[in-house]
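Table 4 source record.
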Amino acid sequence: MDKGAEGLKTKLRRLVDAIADGGEGCDELETYDEVARLVLEIRDLKFGAARNGKGGGGNFQKKEGSVVKVPEHFLCPLSSELMRDPVLLSSGQTYERCFIQEWLSTGNRTCPRTQQVLSHITLTPNHLVRGMIFDWCTKNGISLSPPSDTDLDLVTGNDRSTFTSLLDNISSQSSPISVKKQAIKDLRLLTKRNKSFRAVIGEKPGGISQFLSVLSVPTLKDNPEVLEDTVTTILNLSIHDSNKKILGEHGEAVPILVTGLRTGTMETRRNSAAALFSLSALDSNKVIIGGLCAIKFLVDLLEDGTLEAQKDAAAAIFSLCMVHENRGRAIQCGVVDVVLQHIIQETLVDESLAILALLCGDQEAVEEIKENGVHCLLKVIRENPCKRNKENAVVVLFAVCMYNRKMLREVAKDEKLNGTMEWLALNGTSRAQRKAAGILDKIKRTMPKTPYSC
């Protein structure tokens, strides 16, 4: 980004700060109008080279005045703009990096296009699509500037100064209790509102210990409000990719999140779960988190939390169980029974089926799926409109039928009445078709005298 954009960015920050502080000294309506104008100017500077004219979204106006239609698969689903830095989400969908990062940074745990719960939030460069876009631009005489390493969230000297001042207020023994409480609250708000503020922590290796020291103060250690502010600050910081490793390997950060899960208010528990999900994007952090009893309290939250808290808990459990050693821990903590209850009650069905399908390779998990579990999985296949849910349900049923003859008999009875597996073998996803066909074959081979196979 050039100096002109930097100047616009500085003006924009000042206006946003003025609005956040109550708009003192400025006309509120004019201030909002000025913010909108600056955002548009910055956007034009950032993407103008790619557009080469006034065309936007699905069309480009070339220098000679002609307009060319942009292929739909070259447009970011979130911005409807031609992608310069396309990346793959775990759902298999491609987005412009900056827009999907913004989506994820606000706490979303699903793919914007498919609404699929994400198994992880790692972004993978889509070199194939990028190459295709480059070839298309070359063919059509469009100059597409490479993505800039700089962004609107660059760290400023003012950010560093404010951050240092807050840390000093928190960690100084001479600071009054009221000052410490206000400082951690300010830190929470700034790391939520200002992207650049999340990056500062990486420049101060001791910064995490400084702000976590607020919980070592005897009069604040058991303060629910301070715990919530601390947990939420960790969550906000964890959104910045470079902070994930720093926070995960810090000796106090994850234990504080576990404490928040165990003893905090519902909001604190939810934010703790969300922070653990964010940190678990790194496999090394998955192992650390799993070894600190976090899964037990995540399962508790999945069982008794509010709906939004349960969603965050489910996302964290699924992500943590991507490493094998955490699957046994989750099973021992009773996650199978909890997710089965959600499926039976038709709440969090997507998330619960995804977790169950991930765990069903473990015989202990399969043994916990009782007769009512088989019936609810068959119901999902018959009635749930989502193909991914049908697929996950039959994946679990396949594992059950391989291990348990009694459960296979229940599936065979259903097949006689409803033909559920036969229907799925014809209409499901490719994976669902294979699993359904495997179950049908198992019924034929082990129960040759059942009415189904006659």
